[in-house]
TetR/AcrR family transcriptional regulator (Nonomuraea mangrovi), 396 residues
Amino acid sequence: MTGTAHPPRLPGRPRSQEVDVAILGAALDLLIERGASETSIEQVAQRAGVTRATVYRRFPDKTALLIQAIESVHQDHAPDALEWPDLDHMLDHWATYLSDPRNRRMLRRLYGAVDDYPELLRAYRDSHGGRRAVAEHATLRRSREHGRLPRDRDLNVVQEMLSGAVLHHLGAYADTEGADSVRGYFLAILRQVGCRIS
Amino acid sequence: MTGTAHPPRLPGRPRSQEVDVAILGAALDLLIERGASETSIEQVAQRAGVTRATVYRRFPDKTALLIQAIESVHQDHAPDALEWPDLDHMLDHWATYLSDPRNRRMLRRLYGAVDDYPELLRAYRDSHGGRRAVAEHATLRRSREHGRLPRDRDLNVVQEMLSGAVLHHLGAYADTEGADSVRGYFLAILRQVGCRIS
């Protein structure tokens, strides 16, 4: 810390945003590559091409930085992607998302850090998972109304099952699975619940 | 036990076994507490009360040590626990297992390390998970034969669903959930598959 007061940041605003983007991007990359416990502010600074002091001036600690990195990426592919007219579209979206190795690895990192950095999974759920869950529930409810799911299914439980199916897929299937294969996996799961879908 | 009845200890074989037990126990504790990447041979030696050289004489590296620690604990509660006369007994067993915070944390550590130490989850599956999967499949098949599961259910897929349900529970529920609550969770899941069980 220099101790000098913050200089008036008139001309630097855009540059400052670029620095933010670089830092958050580097943090997210390192989280995905190495996991939260193996990521340090030092490494983030190095990869972003800034000094540690620059990082610390913006983010009080590693956890706060990683939380913002997670939130920033999930603000990007946000609202529009989270509405599906029907189950088929929902499955297509999941299949696309889960056939991207980077997404898979990020989810594994968040769940893998749940004992040491529970804030990260919470940030993901708050910024993205929660809205996704609402959209999923709406899609499942419409499917049940349209007779594609048996009337007596408990949608909250079905949703928990599907979340579990995602986790199982992340751990038991290779990251090289294509979207078709991922889609087939979820189709098979939904059929066990009595879902009529092809 | 006093040890007086035992023949005098020949040159160190039994003591050597004690050292093994201490090292493997310390390794497992650290894996559960801190995770694989935050565990070092140094820490294991310290906790087991031996030198690093003693550890390295028995285990070439950290991964090999952690693998043996996982295998050793799963050889303990082995064959007898892995046969269930029916679904109810299987659920009881799962509920007991998954209401123990130490088991939950260990499973999370294995899945959480899947990108950096895939050998650990593999060791768990080879030493325990594989046999458990066989026992589960047999139990599900009998349940279907007895009409408790619809005939057209794909048991392999149901099994994947249940594995996913375990993972979801590990991440979404508190480690303080009692066995009854865990059992209720799996009951609800099984009912969505059309399982007749109370």
About this structure: The mean pLDDT of chain B is 90. Chain B is about 70% helix and 0% strand.
